Write a sequence for this structure.
């Protein structure tokens, strides 16, 4: 197990009881510990560099005084900077003025899109919405059935291609799903799309075509928090290839420290909106920047 950042800072400052400003040597020692801890949490190197520079700048300007010892003071600065990069406030879903609100999911195969689609539908239903799921992932053999099974579990209607017609046109399925939702008065439509194993141009084009066809109010990029350093390249490729409004982090029940959240938020400027943390449909919540900052620190 790695030492936590809070522990690292506490030991750096052990014995240091100075008043007044932190010395330059103290700041350098602190910066080193922060850098190591963030790299261990799989934060991308350019993000680590910017972050450490920002914390150093603030630490230089602050008086060591009052109730906080130097270690606590630096932890407070680090925490505030983390929360700021992670978007500050929790980003809420934007609903369409005229229903249905269309939410499209995009991401790599295995990221957890299909699972997430059902979780999000259940979450919306619990808030009094009437969501519909649309199975437009016709690439992965089991994706349609998986969405139907999960939809049933969540008690949510699923729009899927006709049985035996699984190799159909995903753009037509997506468009048909949104039309059906409008007709049947569902107020939110969640469109699951085909993932890709790598950054496949053809599937990226398909996701763009679906986006153009259904004009989503929100495109959510779904990413596995466990992919660590690869998260930034993947997030950037989807931003360029499909475009999205916000990010959903999945598999936060694993031992990932949350570096992916920080890297993606900083490098793409897109907020993380939801966090998925298990295989059960209820293992899902809004993303809270302050909680994630705590996880990265601890
Ligand atoms: P898709 O290819 O993006 O649609 O991914 P799936 O929804 O099929 O998920 C891939 C695998 O990850 C499945 O075995 C899911 O049960 C699992 N999975 C999805 N979300 C989570 C999560 O938050 N935590 C864990 N532990 N597993 C998850």
């Amino acid at each position: 197990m790695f030492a936590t950042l809070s522990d690292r800072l506490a030991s750096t400052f052990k014995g240091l009881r100075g008043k007044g400003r932190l010395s330059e040597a103290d700041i350098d020692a602190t910066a080193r510990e922060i850098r190591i801890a963030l790299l261990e949490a799989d934060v991308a190197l350019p993000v680590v560099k910017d972050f450490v520079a920002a914390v150093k700048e603030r630490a230089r300007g602050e008086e060591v005084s009052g109730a906080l010892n130097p270690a606590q003071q630096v932890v407070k600065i680090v925490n505030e900077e983390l929360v700021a990069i992670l978007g500050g406030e929790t980003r809420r879903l934007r609903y369409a003025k005229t229903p249905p609100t269309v939410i499209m999911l995009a991401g790599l195969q295995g990221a957890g899109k299909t699972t997430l689609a059902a979780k999000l539908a259940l979450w919306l239903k619990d808030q009094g919405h009437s969501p519909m799921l649309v199975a437009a992932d016709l690439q992965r053999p089991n994706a349609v059935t998986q969405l139907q099974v999960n939809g049933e579990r969540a008690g949510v209607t699923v729009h899927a291609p006709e049985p035996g017609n699984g190799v159909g046109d995903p753009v037509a399925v997506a468009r048909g799903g949104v039309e059906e939702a409008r007709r049947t008065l569902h107020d939110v439509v969640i469109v699951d799309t085909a993932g890709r194993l790598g950054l496949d141009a053809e599937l990226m084009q398909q996701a763009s075509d679906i986006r153009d066809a259904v004009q989503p109010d929100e495109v959510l990029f779904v990413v596995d928090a466990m992919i660590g350093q690869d998260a930034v390249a993947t997030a950037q490729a989807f931003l360029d290839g499909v475009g999205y409004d916000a990010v959903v982090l999945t598999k936060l029940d694993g031992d990932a420290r949350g570096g992916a959240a920080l890297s993606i938020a900083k490098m793409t400027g897109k907020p993380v909106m939801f966090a998925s943390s298990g295989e059960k449909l209820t293992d899902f919540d809004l993303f809270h920047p302050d909680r994630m900052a705590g996880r990265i620190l601890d």
Notes: The pocket of guanosine-5'-diphosphate is lined by residues 107, 109-115, 140, 195, 250-251, 253, 276-279, 283 (CB under 6 Å). The chain has a mean pLDDT of 89. The CA atoms of residues 131 and 188 lie 5 Å apart. The radius of gyration is 22 Å.
